Amino acid sequence: MDAALKVRGLAAGYAPGVPAIEGVDLDVAGGHSVAVLGPNGGGKTTLFRALLGQTPWRRGEVVVRGSLAYVPQTERSRLDFPIDALGVVLMGRYRYAPWYRRLGRDDRRAAREALDRVGLGDHARTRYGELSGGQRQRVLIARALAQEAGVLLMDEPMSGVDRPSAELVLALLEELRDEGRIVLVSTHDIDQARRFDSVLCINRDQVGCGRPDEVLTAAAVARTYGAELVRLADGEQAVVVQHHSH
Amino acid sequence: MVDALTEPFAHTIGQRALLEVVLIGAVAGPLGVWVVLHRQSYAAESLAHAMLPGLVAAALLGVPLALGAAGGLLLAALAIAAAQRQRAVGPDVGVAVAVTVLLGLGAVLALAPDAPPRLGELLFGDPLSVSPDDLVLSGTGAAVVLAAMAALHRPLTAAAFDPQLAATLGSSARATELALLLLLAATTLLAVQALGNLLVVALIVAPAAAALRLTSRLGPALAVAAALGVLAGAAGLYASHYLDIAAGAAIALAALATFLLAQLTPRRA
Q1: Is B161–A88 a contact, with Cβ atoms under 8 angstroms apart?
Q2: Which of A65, B70, B111, B156 suits A37 as a labelling partner, its CA being 20 to 30 A distant?
Q3: How many domains does chain B divide into?
């Protein structure tokens, strides 16, 4: 797997000419993981949608080698939908067969393998809505694997997931990275961000990008979180994050 | 016992009615599953209710009902689409007003002194009045809609499960939604003769909602909805024959009964 992602001066938004993000520069080779750190509404999701070409307006340059797959937050998928885990993973194969033709045996095998890969081979026939948050997240990762994606864009994969499952997901991401994929993960958790190879701090504008120990300075974190940051009495910082669905 | 089962269908009229309700039940059920999963039940009801002027115009002009239904559906779709853009009052208010205006317009036309006395049939349907030509139309239409649903199975799945994601999976959510509304219009057109424009929604939404309650996977849900649609159609004809009640209304009530009975089963997670 030989993925690459180059972004130069990217600006994008939902209203033409009104950037929700601006001045994003990023250069990642395969086998690297990047945490996209920022407050809610800071443009993390907009960045992913811009990379996927889904925002109505985009300026700048994006070069991708390998195909992109987007892994949404599990809370956004429909839990009442009558489908099992394998069915969700099979969606990753949809674009490999024309819409009027049935999925073939190869597609089923690829979906099965992807599900085994995330450790949920035994849950293939379990209804998606009955799985735990962490299991659902892994099913959605399996779907991206079934898409044969070289670049994974993951939207807050640890939110709504209990701690042991979050560790499982993080370990899985490290494995996928070591296979040569690019893994981009949006998060608002600074501690989680430290575990990635690089951190991209974004709060509408790009605040910084580089190795976690270089980028995550007190000043950069303050600029990233702006008004959401409160300073504790002993000088430590705490980040106040309002959870909201968007 | 066997006589009691076959008696309603001893004559051509009963046989045609049975064939008609089997055809539309088998289509309306699975189509309804997609309508419910795409949260388009309100659109289904609006579209069906607002098509009355077209039906009345067909009755007044003496042209085939299906032609009037097609015209009425087109007018209704345009009015609803325009009403949904009314940001000042909100889309739901806009649609409610547009639908009521069209329903009222249809009633005014139908109750005019020189109009043929068919308003009841247009509103509540009459499967016993189906002609052989109607059956040919229903059969062809049913085959087309079923084939289209099979072909669109994957886009419909992706767009309902995760509309924002459908594009990255290789299909357009907006095009899929439009295709679903076209199939809904086609199904309404097929079923309006038997059920009328006020009751047709019952056969689309109720068996589907029941099937989704009884099953936990898409394939079985589509099959069960088709079976319940056919069952409701046949049960309605029996009720109509033995209780001497209006056939269209009896079918609608039978469809609602499948929904209510399904709610009595334990909920699946």
Answers
A1: yes
A2: A65
A3: 1
Q: Look up the pTM and report it.
A: 0.85
Tell me the chain A residues in contact with residue B262 when contact means C-beta distances shorter than 8 Å: none
pLDDT at A114 over 70: yes
Hey, where are the domains in chain A? 4-239
Amino acid at B58: A
* Greatest Cα pair distance in chain A: 64
- Amino acid making up residue A64: V
Residue B168: give the domain boundaries: 19-263
Q: Is A37 helix (H, G, I), strand (E, B) or coil?
A: strand
C-alpha distances in Å from residue A224, one per residue of A39, A42, A80: 7, 8, 37
The band of A246, judged by pLDDT with boundaries at 50, 70 and 90, is very low
Give domain status of residue B10, yes or no.
Answer: no
- Fill in the DSSP letter of residue A32: E
Distance CA(B166)–CA(B251), nearest Å, equals 36
Find the distance separating the first CA and the last CA of chain A, reported in whole Å.
33
User: What CATH number should be reported for the domain holding residue B83?
Assistant: 1.10.3470.10
The interface pTM score, or ipTM, of the predicted complex is 0.81
A94 touches chain B (CB under 8 A): yes
> Distance (Å, rounded) from C-alpha A29 to C-alpha A3?
6
Give the residue-averaged pLDDT of A161-177: 87
Instruction: For residue range A48-88, list pLDDT tens digits in order.
Output: 989 988 888 888 999 998 888 888 887 777 888 999 999 99
DSSP bridge partners of A13: A57
Quickly name the fold that domain A4-239 has.
Rossmann fold (3.40.50)
Which of B152, B162, B172, B180 best tests the A interface by mutation, with the highest count of A CBs <10 A?
A: B162
Which helix H or strand E contains A57, and what residues bound it? Answer: strand A57-65
Question: Does A150 lie at the interface with B, CB-CB under 8 angstroms?
Answer: no
Give me the residues paired with residue A238 across strands.
A230
Task: Spell out the long-range contacts of B57-60 with Cβ–Cβ below 8 A and sequence spacing 24 or more.
Answer: B57/B109, B59/B110, B59/B115, B59/B116, B59/B118, B59/B122, B60/B109, B60/B115, B60/B116
